[in-house]
Amino acid sequence: MTVATPRDLEPQLQQPLQPKGWLRYFSFSVDHKVIGLQYLVCGFFFYLVGGLLAGAIRTELATPLSDFMPRDTYNEVLTLHGTVMIFLWIVPVVNGAFGNYLIPFYVGARDMAFPRLNAVAFWMIPPAGFLLISSYFLAGAAAQSGWTAYPPLSLTTPAAGQVVWILSVLLLGGSSIFGAVNFIATVLKMRRPGLKMMQLPMYCWAMLGTSLLVVLSTPVLAGVLILLSFDIIAHTGFFNPTLGGNVVVYQHLFWFYSHPAVYIMVLPAFGLVSEILPVHARKPLFGYTTMVYSIMGIVFLGLIVWAHHMFTSGTPPWMRLFFTIATSFIAVPTGIKFFNWLATLWGGKIALNSAMLFSCGFILNFVFGGITGITLAQVPFDIHVHDTYYVVGHFHYIVYGGTVFVIFASLYHWYPKFTGRLLNEDLGRLHFLLTFIGFNLCFLPQHWLGLNGMPRRVAEYDPTFTTLNQVSSVGALLMAISTLPLLVNVVVTAFQGKRAGDNPWNALTAEWLTSSPPPVENWKGEAPLVTEPYGYGRAQEPKAPTLEAAR
Amino acid sequence: MARAVKIRAAITTALATASLGLTGFLVGTRVNLLPVDASTNAPTYDSLFKVLFSIGTMLFLGISIVLIYSLVRFRRNEGELADGPPLEGNLPLEIVWTAIPAVVILFVGIYSYDIYDRMGGMTPLDHGALHHQHAMDTPSHTMEAKSMEMPSERVWGGIGPAIDTGVASTSSASGAVLPVEVTAMQFAFIFHYPEADITSGELHVPLGQPVELRMKALDVIHAFWVPQFRLKQDVIPGQPTVLSFTATRPGTYPAICAELCGPYHGGMRTSVVVHEVDDYQTWLQQNRPAPSST
């Protein structure tokens, strides 16, 4: 494979289709960096939408009575909150935004393998998102059966809203598959000559594993949702027990995607943290090889644990044994990663900046969520707490305390690359403090509530649980407030922030070996060959190919 | 000199590990996060909870302490440009932190499976339910799917009678299983006692007698949960399930629907009343349908 010089690419890159300046972010641009930022900003918009919905839920739950909104509206709100946060915020941002921005740099390419497919994948998201939200206004009612859409409930709630929900999730799943195909092809086939797989930054491995999961499991979700839509529209009986259908089959097929979906949300975050920690601790990533194997171990195990979501659904005993053991064993490769990160920090020269604070917050939150995850994997334990607030607390520790914290860490780390300006550290620390306290205040009490008798997805509850629910709501309010310093920081910095220079962190990975923001072709000259992305602490060797050497 | 440092490090590590283990054990066994236990399953469940809580506390505290210590001890000074040592891995260390969690996980998995077995999760379900086939007298009979009318009904899942029924065998007068038919619908549980021909909106059971709930759903999936019994079972349309328990503490406990079933899901709750044996007989007498009502 030869590396094309910028001159060869010139005609393609100067298409009239792509406006200059800020307008290109609203165009069908094929530049992976533009697409990455499109994903990021679009995702953040839906994070605010999902956050508003979460605020509505916590307001309703501030009192034990169902008195803030009608009960069916409450079910619409919780369904939309789950769907928006998973499919429109976390999955697109942690995969699409950072994957598209960083992967071509890491493999030494000038763009993704299929740039047009990439743009198509992004442009499926805004219509799907607006379709989903507008279903409340257009179809008369949004979906009310939770993000799991279990039949027969999803067959009996208002049909139009449910069908729009299915259509929207199908579009988002399709976008996710297009993206995954692109990542697999880029990592495997677009590497710069001389760059070996075991020299790639860890995020490439994480995205390779994640994309394999997407390609293997998302089509199953698409299939089962199409069958569900047949049941709703054409009154077939796949999942309708009165027509001889089997509702548990739906659950098997749904969770065959939706458990791996947890790893689709979490593995890229593991990859991003593996990039951030070495830079700010000034030490190589500890245990590179075991990190790679543990990612692949999580991918394999992640595909064979889905039935732990169904321990109370009448699964046969042998299945419960198998899924308990398989689920528990995910803790082993996951544990390896956490021990490796701690060893990366140990003895380093740690800069306690916002990116590092959010990364360490991620470690604490995720370890806690991982431990409650192990307890949930045990069948007898799960039988008591399944479908309670214990589960709500657990998965928010994984997806918010885990992945969303990493998204914020990544924002502080890569914002200088995106814009050429450093985010304000004081506002960043304030953002971290508010988020960390608010998050733990919101979700820690929910574990006790679940253990003591509060089921999930309820608009009313036993008045003895009032105090802790109010504590949780105060935490949610703090989380809402915490977005203000972030928004101010991002907007003000974009215009008046401190200039970052090309490589403010003195990092060694390839995205920093060019200007900030980078040119359309990523590097002015040939792509640098980075064989040691984590070669910190080798004073006698040249740290990295300099810009001059790369030319 | 170097030897002395090594020994001191080893002693520090051993002491830290021991105190961490002790703290975890004390927190796990002394801190109670669970509601009152009111069935034979509950103490079994609580012993598993204590083990998991102890291990979890040790792990979480250990990792938090190492993390926070690192952030304080290895913090970069202002303006310092040097890198840390180029440590890229340590195979023996990595093998240790792969092997120890694997062993712990295996132990936890086997232990929890033993607990599950003792709770009755592995008991074959079909025989118990098949012997007690009664004609359904609930008004919903005609609405049932065809499969419900078949003579021998398949039980799809659930929890059988607990093996560890020491309490039950000593305190129960009859020892026989009390069958109760549970019908779940939007948004209520209906309990039918086939032997006494009583239909009730609350579940009344005698202390110490094994109870077998045979559960059916009419419309959507519901789940029957009594937190004080530590038991939950989905009630799935078209797939009858069974839930067995023996109550051990008199009182009134909530029975909660735990699966999203529609707008009034949060209001779908009733009570389980555990009576002393004599009180239960009184309740039966008071609620038995009048025999003269022909």
Task: Give a written overview of the molecule.
The complex is a heterodimer of chains A (551) and B (294). Chain A has helices at 6-13, 32-60, 71-107, 115-123, 125-138, 153-156, 159-189, 202-233, 247-281, 288-302, 317-329, 331-345, 354-377, 379-385, 389-419, 425-451, 466-496, 547-550, and strands at 421-422, 498-499. Chain A has 551 residues and is mainly alpha-helical. Chain A has one domain (29-550): Up-down Bundle (Cytochrome C Oxidase, Chain A). The longest helix of chain A has 37 residues, at 71-107. By secondary structure, chain B is α/β, with parallel strands linked by helices. Chain B has six helices and eleven strands. Residues 127-152 and 164-173 of chain B have low confidence and may be disordered. The interface between A and B is large, with 98 and 82 residues.
Give the tags.
heterodimer; A: 551 residues; mainly alpha; Cytochrome C Oxidase, Chain A; two-stranded antiparallel ribbon; 18 helices; 66% helix; disordered C terminus; B: 294 residues; alpha/beta; Immunoglobulin-like; six-stranded mixed β-sheet; five-stranded mixed β-sheet; 6 helices; 11 strands; elongated
